Amino acid sequence: MELITYPFVETFAGIQGEGTFMGMGATFIRLAGCNLRCAWCDTTHSFDVDRARRLTVNELLQECSLTQPLVVITGGEPTLYNLQPLVTAIHKLDKRVAIETNGTNPIPAEWDIDWVTASPKPGSNYAINCRPNELKYVVDDRLSVTDIAADRVPPGHVYLQIESCRPESARKAYKMVVEYPELKLRVGIQLHKILGVE
Ligand code: SF4
């Protein structure tokens, strides 16, 4: 059987700064490669799959300081790879596994991921082809209320993420929450940036 390897970019321990688990200690694992090229992407260093080290599950976990209760697999776009072996190994360490995805790829149920955060991207890339637990939308000039797929997650699990603490973004998020109460939106912040611990 072929041994699965993952293109590894980096790992670090910190806090989950966004969404439902905001403030919780988390170990982040970033994998390389993405199927999108968003203009504002702040993780472009994860694009180059060829330059990333290919690590087996055991090698990857040895790189990580798995001291935190939550492990967040992010990218890039981590659903480009079969995550089942990695998630199974992390579960054996009694940690919960969350994933951050752009939502464009299906996530098989057998991967057994505990929490899926999808951040749909503007334009045609707003497709959501997985079953997320929560949605995060960056509130920029392009975001329209018609883009928000609140029916895809339980009520109260859509976060309007303020873009880089911009006041215009904050005002727009605030207005959307107040003007569309039926969508049960929430304003989302980046706690790690506010605390200055990113
Ligand atoms: S989906 Fe995420 S990682 Fe990929 S290009 Fe867009 S912002 Fe960057």
Automatic annotation (TrEMBL):
Keywords: 4Fe-4S, Iron, Iron-sulfur, Lyase, Magnesium, Metal-binding, Queuosine biosynthesis, S-adenosyl-L-methionine. It catalyses: 6-carboxy-5,6,7,8-tetrahydropterin + H(+) = 7-carboxy-7-carbaguanine + NH4(+). [4Fe-4S] cluster binds at C34, C38, C41. It comes from the Bacteria. One of its GO terms (biological process) is tRNA queuosine(34) biosynthetic process. Substrate binds at I15, Q16, G17, R30, T74. Pathway: Purine metabolism; 7-cyano-7-deazaguanine biosynthesis. S-adenosyl-L-methionine binds at W40, C41, D42, G76, S119, P120, K121. Its EC number is 4.3.99.3. Mg(2+) binds at T43. Binds 1 S-adenosyl-L-methionine per subunit. One of its GO terms (molecular function) is magnesium ion binding. SUPFAM superfamilies: Radical SAM enzymes. InterPro entries: 7-CO-7-deazaguanine_synth-like (IPR024924), Aldolase_TIM (IPR013785), rSAM (IPR007197), rSAM_sf (IPR058240). It is an enzyme of class 4 (lyase). Residues 21-198 form the Radical SAM core domain. HAMAP family: QueE. Homodimer. Catalyzes the complex heterocyclic radical-mediated conversion of 6-carboxy-5,6,7,8-tetrahydropterin (CPH4) to 7-carboxy-7-deazaguanine (CDG), a step common to the biosynthetic pathways of all 7-deazapurine-containing compounds. This is 7-carboxy-7-deazaguanine synthase.
